[in-house]
């Protein structure tokens, strides 16, 4: 993303967040769900990370960064 | 050569000496009490690096006694705690769906019932009561029985064996005998679950044809050991710490959300036991390390690192959740961590609400602390109310 891409939806001026997850690396600890349950879940069948919202609103950005920092397998990338 | 600082002078705090190493030599060559040299890692970022980096192998054993030299091992079938990726992942993924946040939350009513039953039983006993024997140990043991699907009629034998492991007074012979009894019992249980799979985790795993009986028994033993003593010691030591800190105790009783994680961080009861072996030459924190050398991570030092959170030596159960490593880090991070959080929260809140006048029945200095144990905790905690 080139510099400050703006979130078009909702007319917000916050920088958009793009999250990707690596399910192959995930160990199902659930730290992301504890940090940001609006954005992350765990699959019922395999317990691995499920991304509910790849581009969450600004008020969740701190929680997403916490989820990334707490993830034991560093399987969450934030761009 | 520096000796490993491994003795706690206060049961709640890391051994003195670790903080200085963390500040000046975060990757330090130290000698183990039983002999042998390792790289001791004390800084939060470097501990996380070791535990998450696949160049460090978990397939090690020993390091705790003169007759148990630190060495590389070939893990037993099913003992995935000792395995590296990708082999580790094959087993871990069989269990992951059973320990997710949402799956574990379904255990809440069951845990609340178990805690209430133990509190009822405590209330009927003559005071003082040993909180460790009557509450801290039985609660996690009963939770694991429910989770695995151990039938009610077998639970007392199961718990006797589990208690022998956790009891510091047990001799090596008693521990080995209890382990043999437990393995024999679990082999019988696995056979029964193969014939007629029950509703618990053992039944679910017994339906799988790609797991041998030996793997199943080893997985069950691992879950029992990993989930019993750790949680029990957190309940016992956590209760004692809160009794010393009435302001924090009040917050926990009121239901402070982050209390379990802050107690885990502050007490770091699993410390100086996570060894890793370098699979290749590498550099850690500027230190060159050769293939075949061992590292020992100090989770307590990492959890009191000023880089982790403000005022890290202060207990603050209202603190936002930190990136603490009390439950490990990397692909081996505690499988049962969400169950542990729930048990700790329900047990401590339940205890403090049931007995508002709870206090230790002996002077604080006389509460017996486990010495030289792999998992820190209390031998006993006499309480009254």
TrEMBL record, chain B:
Pfam families: p450
InterPro entries: Cyt_P450 (IPR001128), Cyt_P450_B (IPR002397), Cyt_P450_sf (IPR036396)
UniProt family annotation: Belongs to the cytochrome P450 family.
PANTHER family in alphabetical order: CYTOCHROME P450 YJIB-RELATED (PTHR46696:SF1), P450, PUTATIVE (EUROFUNG)-RELATED (PTHR46696)
The protein's name in its UniProt record: Cytochrome P450
Species: Planomonospora alba
């Amino acid at each position: 993303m080139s510099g400050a891409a703006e979130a078009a939806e909702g007319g917000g001026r916050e920088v958009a967040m793009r999250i990707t997850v690596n399910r192959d690396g995930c160990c199902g600890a659930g730290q992301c769900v504890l940090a940001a349950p609006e954005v992350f879940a765990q699959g019922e069948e395999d317990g691995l990370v499920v991304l509910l919202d790849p581009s969450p609103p600004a008020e969740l950005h701190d929680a997403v960064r916490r989820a990334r920092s707490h993830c034991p397998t560093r399987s969450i990338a934030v761009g | 050569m520096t000796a490993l600082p491994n003795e706690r002078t206060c049961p709640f705090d890391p051994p003195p000496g670790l903080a200085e190493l963390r500040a000046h030599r975060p990757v330090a060559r130290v000698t183990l009490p039983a002999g042998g040299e390792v790289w001791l890692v004390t800084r939060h970022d470097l501990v996380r690096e070791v535990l998450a980096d696949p160049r460090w192998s978990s397939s090690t054993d020993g390091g705790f006694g003169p007759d148990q030299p630190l060495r590389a091992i070939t893990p037993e079938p099913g003992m995935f705690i000792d395995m590296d990726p990708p082999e580790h992942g094959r087993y871990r993924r069989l269990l992951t769906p059973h320990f997710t946040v949402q799956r574990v939350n379904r255990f809440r009513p069951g845990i609340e019932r178990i805690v209430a039953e133990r509190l009822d039983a405590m209330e009927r006993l003559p005071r003082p009561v040993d909180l460790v024997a009557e509450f801290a140990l039985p609660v996690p043991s009963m939770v694991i029985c429910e989770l695995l699907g151990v039938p009610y009629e077998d639970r007392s034998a199961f718990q006797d064996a589990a208690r022998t492991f956790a009891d510091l007074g047990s001799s090596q012979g008693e521990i080995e005998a209890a382990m043999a009894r437990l393995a024999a019992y679990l082999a019988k249980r696995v056979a029964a679950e193969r014939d007629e799979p029950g509703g618990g985790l053992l039944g679910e795993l017994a339906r799988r044809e790609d797991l041998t009986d030996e793997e199943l028994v080893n997985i069950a033993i691992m879950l029992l050991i990993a989930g019993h003593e750790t949680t029990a010691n957190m309940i016992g030591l956590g209760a004692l710490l809160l009794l010393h800190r009435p302001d924090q105790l009040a917050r926990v009783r009121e239901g402070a959300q982050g209390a379990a994680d802050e107690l885990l961080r502050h007490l770091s009861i699993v410390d100086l036991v996570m060894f890793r072996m370098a699979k290749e030459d590498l550099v850690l924190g500027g230190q060159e390390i050769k293939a075949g050398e061992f590292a020992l991570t100090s989770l307590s030092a990492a959890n009191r690192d000023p880089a982790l959170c403000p005022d890290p030596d202060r207990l603050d159960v209202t603190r936002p959740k930190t990136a603490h490593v009390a439950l490990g880090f990397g692909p081996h991070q505690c499988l049962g961590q969400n169950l542990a959080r729930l048990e700790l929260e329900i047990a401590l809140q339940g205890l403090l609400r049931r007995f508002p006048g709870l206090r230790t029945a002996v002077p604080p200095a006389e509460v017996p602390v486990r010495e030289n144990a792999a998992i820190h905790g209390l031998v006993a905690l006499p309480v009254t109310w």
